[in-house]
Amino acid sequence: MIRPGQTSGVEREIAANAASNRHDFLVALEHAMKRQAADTRAREAAQRPAEGEDAGLGGLRVVNPVQ
Question: Which pTM was predicted?
């Protein structure tokens, strides 16, 4: 299993050269890094509405029409 956080201190190319299949390692590493970034963005997006004043409205306001 590849853990992108563990490879941060090691150069990608050095790790890829040490792998038995360089191309497969780089593809798997890139996929894992993208998944980690997507998970981070999803967590941040889930927390964002709870922090705002108008949670759930997305910045829109409901006003009564002028009669």
Answer: 0.56
